[in-house]
Design a protein that fits this description.
By secondary structure, the chain is an alpha/beta fold. The chain has 18 helices and eleven strands. The strands form two sheets. A nine-stranded mixed sheet has the order 3-2-1-4-5-7-6-8-11, sandwiched between helices. A two-stranded antiparallel ribbon has the order 9-10. A hairpin with a 7-residue loop joins strand 9 and strand 10. Helix 2 crosses helix 6 and helix 8 packs parallel to helix 16. The longest helix is centred in the first third of the chain and has 31 residues. It is globular, with a radius of gyration of 29 Å.
């Protein structure tokens, strides 16, 4: 976890932006990210230079001989804030914008309309000094936590109803799915690319040897990660987020995933997503083949249809849905649940408490885990009732000890042991036949059994006598008090 000291440093830099007139959190994060990125480029270059020196091999980095003065450690030492401002705004910024040249990488696509918005030399000098005191980008965990803390300052949901998925929920879903070095992973509503970043970090941690195999290494950097969004600022932040986490060329595209423009079909092996629960779209705006499964205008249902279409047979999905998807009684709600249960393999429904997305929203949600088979396969569906996620369920979301996430991962990895669990426990299986009988209802409360403890009460006359006895005591006490007060008077 990020330390209080680093949080304070980030808050101080944030304050500098704020007092300098940049108050939109997205703009602050964007400008902050550009400078973090510029610093990390220099740090990575320095490491490679030293390695080349030790190995005695020539080194050709991303900063050509005539551009060495654009490196962080050089321009931060310039004599005056004005000189540094001129170099950063006129030279460094155009340099990073054109880093990938004319190619079609996510970076070059979304940096094209990036703007340097820091208004004064003194403000830039203060921010550069603040960022210089942050831990180096080479400390991957700290960098991830730092960036997550920055993003947490986006404390309101976006215009399309999208809001940041908490990192610990993302990590839980990634650990449930265990991405492999061969996977092709997509988040069609990616926001700041949190799911893609977490999947990339999981692979670095659990499959680090993939970088020793040229084909897998190429796949990781160029053809493994896909993300779409309709907000160009999010795409820019997402692309830099991926690059700061060591993925060279993620496939990040501006796209309305639900429209006819999106032709993807059976292309990916893993979907990780928390699509927006925006409400409704016009039928004309939605791809026709998504309406075949469930004719609906609701985005949360349309995204489920999309996931099924874009997955390859055998592909897996872990996605967040609002509770209404689980028990909604409309034809469309029932149709999408029936499609997943009857034509594919639904494995798990993890019910989450409503405070998980605070302060953005108080909506109750669940994680659905399923595999696209095209031939059914749902037998027993595993339900888990998450009561705590390690944070208080109010707007403050302070850290607490109660946390079901380790238990969820442990039990999901050993479903054999779940078979004997009763419906009164926190997790249990429900057979597919029972789901069919209940219109494919997937709300945990439909199947959970509550044990009521039998309480034996005394006979009414006995209780009445006790009340009378207490009343007599009260009256006696009042009489004594009255006598005492009379004496004093």
């Amino acid at each position: 976890m990020i330390t209080g000291e680093i949080k304070n440093k980030v808050d101080k830099i944030w304050e500098t932006f704020w007092t300098g007139g940049i108050t939109n959190p997205l703009t602050v994060i964007e400008q902050f990210t550009y400078l973090l990125f510029i610093k990390s480029l220099d740090e990575a270059e320095t490491i490679k230079e030293k390695e080349a020196e030790v190995l005695g091999i020539p080194f050709e980095g991303i900063f050509p001989e005539d551009k060495q003065h654009l490196r962080w450690h050089r321009f931060k030492q310039l004599g005056s804030p004005e000189e540094m401002y001129r170099v950063v705004s006129d030279e460094v910024f155009p340099f990073i914008k054109n880093l990938h040249g004319k190619d079609n990488s996510a970076y070059s696509k979304y940096m094209g309309d990036a703007m340097f918005l820091i208004p004064t030399a003194n403000m830039l000098a203060k921010i550069v000094e603040g960022i210089d005191n942050l831990p180096p980008a080479t400390d991957r965990d700290v960098q991830g936590d730092l960036y997550e803390y920055l993003l947490s300052k986006l404390s309101t949901s976006g215009t399309n109803g999208q809001f940041r998925t908490p990192r610990h929920i993302i990590q839980m879903m990634v650990e449930l799915m265990k991405p492999t070095p061969e996977d092709i992973i997509i988040d069609p509503a990616m926001g700041t690319a949190g799911f893609l970043v977490a999947a990339s970090e999981y692979l670095r941690k659990h499959h680090n040897d993939l970088f020793l195999v040229q084909g897998l290494k190429e796949h990781y950097h160029n053809t493994m990660f896909y993300g779409n969004d309709m907000d160009r600022t999010m795409l820019r932040i997402g692309a830099m987020n991926m690059m700061l986490h060591g993925v060279d060329n993620p496939n990040i595209d501006y796209r309305d995933s639900l429209s006819e423009i999106n032709k993807d079909k059976e292309k990916y092996t893993l979907v990780l997503a928390n699509p927006p629960f925006k409400g409704s779209l016009d039928y004309e705006a939605v791809s026709n083949d998504l309406l075949k499964i469930a004719k609906t205008k609701k985005t949360e249902l349309l995204f489920l249809s999309l996931f099924i279409r874009i997955l390859k047979p055998g592909g897996r999905a872990a996605v967040i849905v609002p509770d209404g998807v689980l028990f909604g009684s409309s034809k469309a709600h029932q149709a999408i649940r029936k499609e997943i249960i009857e034509n594919h393999k639904l494995q798990a429904v993890i019910s989450m408490p409503s405070g998980v997305f605070k302060p953005y929203a108080g909506v109750s949600t669940a994680v659905l885990v399923f595999t696209k088979t095209g031939a059914g396969g749902t037998d027993n569906v595993w339900f888990y009732d998450m009561k705590a996620d390690g944070f208080s369920l109010d707007d403050k979301r302070t850290q607490i000890e109660e946390n079901d996430i380790p238990d969820i991962i442990k039990r999901f990895n050993n479903l054999e042991a779940e078979k004997e669990r009763k419906r009164t426990e926190q997790s249990f299986f429900v057979p597919v036949e029972e789901l069919r009988e209940n219109d494919y209802d997937l709300s945990i409360n439909k199947y959970k059994e509550i044990e009521y403890e039998e309480v034996e009460y005394e006979e009414p006359l006995v209780i009445l006598k006790k009340i009378q006895s207490i009343e007599n005591e009260i009256n006696s006490g009042l009489n004594e008090l009255e006598a005492l007060l009379s004496e004093k008077l």
